From TrEMBL:
Species name: Dysgonomonas termitidis
Protein name per UniProt: Ribosomal RNA small subunit methyltransferase A
EC number: 2.1.1.182
Enzyme class per UniProt: transferase
Chain's gene name: rsmA
Record-annotated Ribosomal RNA adenine methylase transferase N-terminal domain positions: 20-189
Family in the record: Belongs to the class I-like SAM-binding methyltransferase superfamily. rRNA adenine N(6)-methyltransferase family. RsmA subfamily.
Gene3D superfamilies: Ribosomal RNA adenine dimethylase-like, domain 2, Vaccinia Virus protein VP39
The keyword Cytoplasm belongs to this UniProt entry's keyword annotation: yes
Keyword Cell cycle: no
Known role: Specifically dimethylates two adjacent adenosines (A1518 and A1519) in the loop of a conserved hairpin near the 3'-end of 16S rRNA in the 30S particle. May play a critical role in biogenesis of 30S subunits.
Alphabetic keyword roster: Cytoplasm, Methyltransferase, RNA-binding, rRNA processing, S-adenosyl-L-methionine, Transferase
């Protein structure tokens, strides 16, 4: 069967450098007995090294041209290829306990993939792979920088994150217009937040929706224009200055002053 052509609408850029593919596969070596889901295997450049490691492997591929190619060239995958959209899958129907996630992630959905990983954070001890450099930097960013944002805080609440290395656009077919990077996320020991998790997400998103403003201004959709909570110094800060712990504390302040909670404080 002929090679599979990369499709722009699927965000496909096929990796040609085998050494990089091997290094990505190696990111899961600390979890040798944990099953793996690979997202978007394409023509199997990363898949072949996962197979070599004798991991329990399932691949999820939306491209209908790639599926017969994978079946033909990688017999070990037969019966372990899911032709579907990773973002729409119930991953617990693939593995009902722990599993790792890996991939050369399609550029157009890489952020969404990591948000989905968060939905399964108690089942995913490690998630690694390659994505565009800009998103990788955002995921690994520390408080205080321009790249630190919603994805940074939400992922760092639950995962220890390493930016491993940068990848040139020249090792892909077709070459993307941006550089790529490989990251590794390992689940931390946190079992719960010191605040309401749903409100935590809302507070983070509300804050970064107006990231150039102080929290006194950006929190108005939640707390209104004139709220007694604004006397706390945290509201003088911009959201990119706050750590995960700071956002937990902010969430608890917001919770206490949400409209309808006044009577509870009296």
């Amino acid at each position: 069967m002929a090679v599979v052509k990369a499709k722009k609408f699927l965000g496909q850029h096929f990796l040609k450098d085998l050494d990089i593919a091997r290094r990505i596969a190696d990111t899961l070596d600390d979890f040798p007995d944990v099953p793996v889901i690979e997202v978007g295997p394409g023509m199997g450049v990363l898949t072949q090294y996962l197979i070599e490691k004798r991991k329990e492997l399932t691949v999820v591929e939306l491209d209908r041209d790639s599926v017969p190619y994978l079946n033909e060239h990688y017999p070990a995958l037969r019966g372990h290829i899911i032709e579907d959209d990773f973002l729409k899958l119930d991953l617990l129907k693939i593995y009902n306990s722990q599993f790792c996630v890996i991939g050369n992630y399609p550029y157009n959905i890489s952020s969404q993939i990591f948000f989905k990983v968060l939905d399964y954070k108690n089942q995913i001890p490690c998630c690694s792979g390659m994505l565009q450099k800009e998103v990788a930097e955002r995921i690994a960013a520390k408080p205080g920088g321009k790249t630190y944002g919603i994805l940074s805080v939400l992922l760092q609440a639950w995962y220890d994150i390493e930016y491993l290395f940068t990848v040139s656009e020249k090792v892909f077919d077709p070459p993307p217009k941006v550089k790529s990077a490989v990251v590794k996320l390992v689940r931390n020991k946190r079992q719960s937040l010191d605040c309401d998790e749903k409100l935590f997400k809302t507070v983070i998103k509300t804050g970064f929706n107006q990231r150039r403003k102080t929290l006194r201004n950006s929190m108005k959709p939640l707390l209104g224009k004139d709220c007694d909570a604004y006397t706390d110094p945290v509201f003088d800060e911009r959201p990119e200055r706050l750590s995960v712990a700071d956002f937990e504390r902010l969430t608890n302040i917001v919770a206490a002053f949400l409209p309808g909670r006044q009577d509870e404080r009296k």
